[in-house]
Amino acid sequence: MLELRGVNKAYGSNHVVRDVDLNVEQGEFFSLLGPSGCGKTTILRMIAGIVAPDSGAILLAGTEVTEAPINKRDLTLVFQNYALFPHMTVADNVAFGLTMRGVPRAEIQRRVREALDVVKLPGLDGRKPSQLSGGQQQRVALARAIVVRPRLLLLDEPLSNLDAALRDQMRWHLKEVQQQTGITTVLVTHDIQEAFALSDRIAVMNAGRIEQIGSPHDIYTRPTSSFIAAFTGDINLLEGAVEGDEAGGFAVRLNDGLRVLVSGEVRHQAGARAKLLIRPEAIALASPVEPDGHTRDENVFEARIDDATFLGAQVRVSLRVGDLPLIASVPGHGFEPYPASRTISIPRAACVLIA
Amino acid sequence: MSLLLEAARQPDRTAGRARRAIDWLPVALLLPLFALFVVWYVAPLFGTVLNSFHPHGLSGIRTDEWTLENYLEITTDPYYRTILIRTLSITAAVAIASAVFVYPVALFIDRQKPSVQTYLLLIYITPWLVNVTVKAFGWVLLLGPGGIINTALRSLGLIERPLPLMFNEFGVFIGLFHAQFIFVLLPVWAAMQGLDKNVVYAAANLGAGQATIIRRIIVPLTLPALAAGLIINMTMSLSAFTTPALLGGARTKVLSNLSHEINLVQLNWPLGAAAGVVLLALTFVPILLVRALGRSRIT
User: Fold this and answer.
1) Chain B: residue nearest A130 by CA?
2) Which of A63-77, A331-345, B8-22 has the lowest mean pLDDT?
3) Is A274 in contact with A240 (CB distance < 8 Å)?
4) Cβ–Cβ of A79/B202 closer than 8 Å?
5) Nearest to A86 by CA among B16, B212, B203
6) How many Cα atoms within 13 Å fall on the side-chain side of residue A290?
7) E strand or H helix that includes residue A33
8) Which phi and psi (to 5°) does residue A119 adopt?
9) Among A305, A331, A330, which residue's Cα sits nearest to residue A318?
10) Which one of A319, B130, B140, B209 has the fewest beta carbons within 10 angstroms of its own beta carbon?
């Protein structure tokens, strides 16, 4: 549906988008995720035709649109600040794109009403944007974009200006609307939860490049770089060297001597330096009452609890295995801080090697 | 310095009584200018308004009698009425021309690089920096019977007799339009600069072409700025004195010239006062007009 081939953009010496290749399938919800300044919004604005790429090609449904004017692309963009027309009513805002397409008046009225129903905002047709709350403005912007039934819907941080509770609500609503309309959607966001909750696939960006493309689950559990690992959640990043094969996987000898078993195939030569990623929630603390038996798929260590911070659903536990500090995140329900000496277990599958 | 700090601290210390207590320092600082205004502006203006209701006699103002005769004369005498209508027509023409020309110019400037914009605006500001008399004589060189335009047209054989480009309404119009265009251009340009570019992109994104964007987005959103500019523009056209005097000549007087003539040549102060009061009242017309217009179009 949408394809980017070797797209580059620089502002002066600031190379904001570097060799970006991208393929978005028909009906897919695709996200560009990255920290601010990583070039994701620039990519979106290039797709929309607001910014022209320095090199590369943008294809929409197989047709090159790299040079096509902004008003001839048949895609719509929901701006971060909504960019509603302040002098027009809600109905006129939503009707704007239809008027531009020469749709008959009666049909415009019908489709405007439909679109406002889809975004659950009926009865406010006569209001001006300044008379609406942030959430309502957001819905108008969404209605204005979907009412023309575009080939592609672009969302530029659509939820970032809303407060936390409303953001959560709008996130589900956005997903619902996208599934209902089936419009191929590209979302730009720096919010990991948002990208994970909404997307079929995510491209994680850093400093103008796409570092990894995959499903939310892939990105979280199998990040290909320490940047992505750290950006998408809390991590324990441990350094060591790859040792030989082990039944069903291989071993990594950490710098301080600890030996960790990793599942999967060895893609490294023995002795190669490597970084080992363990998510805090993958570390389990054995119950102090009845230490359970561990399977051979787990790494088992003796650890000491240094500190525990209660966060409600989770407890963040600072551990020490020998001299190696680890962060664990365990369910808050039933957490016991004592005894301090504890057996911990880490599934082999939860240990990820990063080159 | 310590006095100012003390004054600043005062409200905190007497938080309960702060609302009733008057902070005298700002009042004291404003007082000299206020006194100056009262003595040399408000009082004479008040005197002028009073004078306009007294009859004029051989010995001057007859302060013991009251009359509306002066106002009747200004508004009904054919000579005075012609001048009144001319003043209003020229003001309206300048305002309309400014409103029509401001959008192409402002849009053009708005699209340039910031550094270029500064220079372009400077070009439009220069007429305001040049002394009004110098400017008027500059126009004489261009528009006069022996001026550049007429000489050029005659040597090309296009006309036999010089075109009447000045010493008439057209000359006054050109002079005022040129001098006061900036008061419309600056606010409209500033409004365009302040416009959320995403709103313009949103319109284009939904399929609007250049002309539609200008007509349906940019013009409606900059109308309040145009209205504000037009208030200044019209007020200045109404009260302009030198430009009409030099480019209009004796045959094309406007209200300010008339008021000068009655006051300082005829020495009929009551009638002159009435002319002045009418002029003052007229300057409120554009303000009310534009405000009414603004209220109906923009919320």
Assistant:
1) B299
2) B8-22
3) yes
4) yes
5) B203
6) 2
7) strand A29-33
8) -90, 10
9) A305
10) B130
Tokens linked to B142: 């261009």
Please tell me the pTM assigned to this model. 0.80
The C-alpha R_g of chain A, in whole angstroms, comes to 25
* Partner B, chain A 61-80, Cβ-Cβ below 8 Å: 70-73, 75-77, 79-80
A280/A342 Cα distance (integer angstroms): 16
Q: Hey, is the C-beta of A52 within 8 angstroms of any chain B C-beta?
A: no
With a CB cutoff of 8 Å and minimum separation 6, the contacts of A328 are A280, A281, A283, A284, A285, A316, A317, A319, A344
DSSP letters, A159-183, are TTTS-HHHHHHHHHHHHHHHHHH--
Cβ atoms A290, A258 nearer than 8 A: no
**Residue A200 neighbours by CB distance under 10 Å:** 15
- For B272-282, b/e burial (b = at least 16 CB within 10 A) is bbbbbbbbeeb
- Residues of B with Cβ-Cβ distance to A97 under 8 angstroms: 206-207
Two tokens, residue A291 = 């230490």
pLDDT in tens, B266-277: 889 899 999 999
Residue of A nearest to B224 (CA): A87
Residue B144 φ/ψ, nearest 5 degrees: -60, 165
What value does the mean pLDDT take over residues A67-81?
91
**Hey, are the CB atoms on A76 and B203 less than 8 Å from each other?**
no
Band the pLDDT of A293: cuts 50, 70, 90. Answer: low
Instruction: Flag whether pLDDT at A2 surpasses 90.
Output: yes
- H or E element: which one contains B184? helix B182-194
First to last CA, chain B: 45
Across the A/B interface, how many CB contacts are shorter than 8 Å?
A: 61
Partners of B106 in beta bridges:
none
Q: What is the ipTM of this complex?
A: 0.84
Q: Do A148 and B206 touch (CB under 8 A)?
A: yes
| pLDDT over 70 percentage in chain B | 91
B94: Cα separation from own chain's centroid: 10
